Here is the input.
Amino acid sequence: MRIYNKKVFVSGIFMVFLGILNLSADIVNKTVDINGMILVSVLLLFGISAIIRSLSRRMAKEDRLEELDERNQLIELKSKSKSFSLTQILTFLFMLALMVMGKVSGNKSFIAMGTGMAFTFAISMFSELFTYFYYEQKN
Here is the structure.
């Protein structure tokens, strides 16, 4: 048996491992319920299907062609760019809301959370700036 797509195989093994780990934790804690069983079954289904896809030559070839398709690459770049922008906006709004809530209520924990969000926002801004300079010099 040959593995044709190692990345998909590893992710499949990881999902199966998470499913088994979740099931065993539910059994040990005696908290088996319908939500846990749905999660376990979904993890096992996706994991097993990923393992099967990675072991099939035809399916692995289809996955590689799909990965190399220029339209899919453009869609992925656009979605990552938009999600990063939305994350920056939401981080700024959460930071602002937490700072205002801290000032109005006098609760220092809101200000601490707002400061953490400010650090997160600053890191995202610096990473955007550095990647811009990197690609500007590269091209």
User: Anything to note?
Assistant: The longest helix spans residues 70-105. The CA atoms of residues 87 and 121 lie 9 Å apart.
